[in-house]
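Moderator note: this is an archived Q&A kept for reference. The question asked for a predicted structure of one protein chain; the sequence and the answer are reproduced below.
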Amino acid sequence: MQVEIYNLIAKQSNISVELVAICDSFSSLLWDVEFYECGCFEVYIAASPQNVEIFQLGRIVGRDDDNEHFGIIESMKIETDAENGDYLTISGRFLTCLLERRITNSNLNHTGVYVYSKGKIMIHLTLDYHSDRDCRTPGEYLRYHRTFQGKSTREVAESVGIVPATLVLYENDKHPIKYNTVVLLAKELNIDHNRLLDSYTSFVDYPCGEFLKKVRMDLSLSQAEIAKDIGVSQTAYSGWERGIKAPRRQEYQKIVCALQRRKVDISGIIFQSTV
């Protein structure tokens, strides 16, 4: 399998496509094809001068075994590895993402594709927005407000310190949003952060220390006893209760299982308290 890199050149009313390079030396390739949403891609490759020159922002990436999906490079980051050398992480979304760049109002009006001067493609597409009450998942809620405010995934992603491909995964509910990122996204878009939380992040936000202490007291357990049930040290559990550190996602799953064995539905309690 090979990756093909193209350059788009706009000349008056025409667009020419130029093949810049063909690459098969990448270490890994993510090619996430979605049928109802915009897919995304990520290429991990050595940061040689040649690769830095080839993978430029705005260029088009394709695969020799897929003639239906092409992506646009939206982010390029260099990572330093003492053992393996410097590496590039190139990411972006498939070309359907261009449609969201020209959302103008709340009515559906498709005016076609127009090529203007200075090499810019203007695509006018507007969506019929009703209310964010129709959003049933954190991803739908996030995508609704980002597109409603006319912001691109790249703009929002960079404002909170993540790559656009990660934001696409969040919006498609392919990956839970980290709590710290939830706070930053809510601030950037001026939205209710509770709507971006899943069961784990809701638990961290509760706050979890007070919740754990109350549940432990209701069960008449010592810290040592409940820590043993969960499968962690008493020191670690004590830190949770005192708010020094929040449990990690894997530890949260252990907490849920331990309390379920004692007939306590932690997710139900947290959810009812945040809606």
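Archived answer notes: The first strand starts at residue 3 and ends at 11.
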